Amino acid sequence: MNNFIDSVPGQKEALENLNRLFNSNRVPHALIFTGKPGTGKHLAALEFAHLINSKEKKDQEKLRSRIFNIEEPFVKFIFPLPRGKGEKNDDPPYEKLTPAQIDEIRKEREEKIKNPYYKINIEKANTIKVSSIRDIKKFVSFGYDEIKYRVVIISDAHIMNNITQNALLKTLEEPPEGFIFILLTDKPENLLTTIHSRCWTINFSPLPENAIGDVIEKYFKFENKQKIELAASFSEGSVLNALALLNVDIEKYLDEVITVLRYSFAGRFYTAQTTFNKILNTWGGDYFKQTLRLFLYWLRDAKGNRSGIDKYYFEKYKDTFEKFNSGFKNAPLEEVYSKIDYYLNLSETQVNLNLIALNTIFELSTVVLRK
């Protein structure tokens, strides 16, 4: 039992809370696991599914294998799926999908089974179907007394629309005996208040850098410790953020980010924009938000340099902060930081990314104008 507390790297507090629920003999019928992507919520759901059944089952190895292989009727795993051509809400979740789509889903699911930190990525899978939620009724209807609790895990629960959430709510209002629902999300604010009121929330913290390194080495087989440490330092506590940096030439990427900053501070808008576009063309549009986050890290370092901090995120570029602050010691870094943080949040919406990039570059340029 004690191994449960240490079964998910960097999440001792979350697992202690879950362990207390288990020991109280009052396990809630529904829980929300909330926290950044890539912090171990899926692994914790599987570990908890094993824990709550561990007293009833003699063959622990077989039980664990079936839970971690996400086998029904032990575990039902719901995640975003694409819609098929002409698909209606009443159609079964897989009925209108092509063989190629079903094969892609199978492969992604297998990757998730092998690696609980793997992020499922299925083309055009941008919602959890209401049919997937309604399918839970079939899962519940089959009697099975081999284990005490069967578990339904809903990944990316925040992308359920209101129709889908209301369908889930009907089940949560009259929960079937012997079933535990675990909703995984990094945006709990997108869930209906009525869903929150029927769930027990467990918060997952951003991971410390050493835990990120351990996960990446164990589950993703990266061996370059120096690059892992560098990526972890910019990851904001998320394994997925660290992986995004490890999947590119991280040192070259950081050089390009510094180049955008230098051109922006110099008021060379066209060159700064061209370099920004070069980053996106080289590594893909997914690095738009990552680049804005790195601008924020640089501004944090520049502010920290004024107060004499010893450790920088951009350690290699420490001289850039010293030169900047010697020339612009009164530049309003906090104001610019807040503005770019606003643009980062704006990039989650439908606002044109090119417009956000231009505004970001302009805002960076005003640092030296308002010195």
**Strand percentage:** 5-15%
* Low-confidence runs of at least 5 consecutive residues: none
Listing every helix as H and every strand as E from the N terminus to the C terminus, the arrangement reads HEHHEHHHEHEHEHHHHHHHHH
Rough outline: elongated
Main beta-sheet annotation = 5 strands, parallel
Look at the helices and sheets and give the structural class. alpha/beta
CATH-level-2 architecture of the largest domain: 3-Layer(aba) Sandwich
> Rg from C-alpha positions?
23 Å
Q: Name the CATH class of the largest domain.
A: Alpha Beta
User: Termini separation (Å)?
Assistant: 59 Å
Number of strand segments: 5
Helical percentage: 40-55%
CATH topology of the largest domain: Rossmann fold
**CATH homology group of the largest domain:** P-loop containing nucleotide triphosphate hydrolases
**Total number of helices:** 17
Number of domains: 2
Rounded mean pLDDT is 91
Major β-sheet strand ordering = 2-3-4-1-5
What is the strand and helix layout of this fold?
Elements: H1 12-23, E1 30-34, H2 41-53, H3 60-68, E2 75-78, H4 99-114, H5 130-134, H6 136-141, E3 150-154, H7 162-173, E4 179-185, H8 193-196, E5 200-203, H9 209-220, H10 225-233, H11 239-246, H12 250-265, H13 269-283, H14 287-306, H15 318-327, H16 333-346, H17 353-369
Parallel strand pairs: 1-4, 1-5, 2-3, 3-4
Helix pairs in contact: 1-2, 2-3, 9-10, 10-11, 12-13, 12-17, 13-17, 14-15, 14-16, 16-17
